[in-house]
Automatic annotation (TrEMBL):
Coiled coil: none annotated. It comes from the Bacteria. The keyword Metal-binding applies. Residues 40-207 form the Oxidoreductase molybdopterin-binding domain. It comes from Alicyclobacillus dauci. This is Sulfite oxidase. CDD domains: SO_family_Moco_dimer (cd02110). Keywords: Metal-binding, Molybdenum, Oxidoreductase. InterPro entries: Ig_E-set, MoCF_OxRdtse_dimer, Mopterin_OxRdtase_euk, OxRdtase_Mopterin-bd_dom, OxRdtase_Mopterin-bd_sf. Residues 232-348 form the Moybdenum cofactor oxidoreductase dimerisation domain. Its cofactor is Mo-molybdopterin.
Length: 351
């Protein structure tokens, strides 16, 4: 008998943006076929056989690496959450423009590749390097700045040289799929996934701040609805959580139900998940499963014994080791980034 299977949820077709069915997935690794897809442009057409990455800028020995050269270097594995900065955007009130992501612009798996610092050491960075710019092969018209652009992002030097910032060639033990950055993709743990540039084309060391549109216009928080007052860049992930079961507006029976989900953060690690059944008046601690890595989400469980019929709202909040806690209402911003309001579902209980 064929078992029913979940599907990716389409948010747009061109460019393709598809959401992971996060509520129907369990475990520390997202299978490739369920990894969410986020694109600004159409997919580039690339071949690993002729693929090259050029490193230039403020370096002593500019160099071009082939795909096979990079694959032959000593590699390391990094298990990490990748979350789109617009994940959960659909929940902002007042509503904002952008892809209508709910909870599934989020996936996790094991990436294998070369420490970025190894490549930078090979070309010899100059003393005045401040940032490293990463250019992808994907390109097209920007929604917010007139003109044609490649997708480009920069990292401050300390983030670029973090031991777990890698140029990845594999995901879950196999070559990265084309739709997720094949042949090579940057992976930056703890940062929102716009930093993990796909289809890597060029790496450039610069001595000032990068000013491309995906750095200085997009992927910034704009707290004011009209002006740029208070604008600041999107960087590391907020503390966040999702209830995977029960589903929102479920109808259940009296008895014991296992409320479950995941929680993650871009600073430190998840230390506590709490559940409220009375709109935040009181909280009960959920059981946290062990993390698989310092960058992975934590699965949590909460046994809920229901003895009365009626309607209930289940609210969940997560805390991390840096002292952050999910807010009841997140900071509104007009581009809809970084939503991390407490996760909630509504349930009706029948006899």
């Amino acid at each position: 008998m064929r078992l029913n299977r979940p599907y990716l949820i389409t948010r747009s077709l061109c460019p393709e943006n598809m959401e992971s069915p996060i509520r129907f997935l369990r475990g520390p690794v997202t299978p490739t076929e369920y990894f969410y897809r986020r694109n600004h442009f159409t997919y580039p057409d690339l071949s690993a056989q002729s693929y090259q990455v050029h490193i230039d800028g403020l370096v002593n020995r500019p160099r071009t690496f082939t795909f096979e050269e990079i694959r032959s270097l000593k590699s390391r594995e990094v298990t990490t959450v990748l979350e789109c900065a617009g994940n959960r955007r659909n929940y902002f009130r007042p509503r904002v423009y952008g892809e209508r992501w709910e909870d599934g612009a989020l996936s996790q798996g094991v990436w294998q590749g070369v420490f970025l610092g190894t490549l930078l050491a090979a070309v010899g960075m100059q003393d005045n390097v401040r940032e490293i710019v990463f250019t992808g092969w994907d390109h097209g018209e920007s929604n917010n700045v007139p003109g044609q652009y490649h997708f480009q992002r920069s990292l401050p030097l300390n983030a670029a040289l973090d031991p777990d910032t890698i140029i990845a060639h594999s995901y879950n033990g196999l070559s990265i799929p084309v739709k997720h950055g094949h042949p090579l993709r940057l992976i930056v743990p703890k940062w929102y996934a716009m930093a993990s540039v796909k289809w890597l084309k060029q790496i450039t060391a610069i001595g000032d701040s990068f000013g491309g549109p995906f750095q200085t216009v997009d992927y910034n928080y704009y707290p004011d609805p009209v002006t740029d007052v208070g604008k600041y860049p999107v960087t590391t992930m907020h503390v966040n959580s999702v209830i995977q079961y029960p589903l929102d507006y479920s109808v259940l029976r009296l008895g014991i139900h296992q409320v479950e989900g995941i929680a993650w953060t871009g600073k430190g690690m998840i230390t506590k998940v709490e559940v409220s059944l009375d709109n935040g008046m009181t909280w009960s601690e959920a059981f946290l499963k062990q993390s698989t890595s310092r960058y992975s989400w934590r699965e949590w469980l909460f046994p809920w014994e229901v003895s009365e019929v009626g309607t209930y709202t289940i609210i969940v909040r997560a805390r991390d080791s840096s002292g952050r806690i999910q807010p009841f209402v997140p900071m509104w911003n007009r581009m809809g980034y970084g939503y991390n309001g407490m996760s909630k579902v509504h349930v009706k209980i029948l006899i």
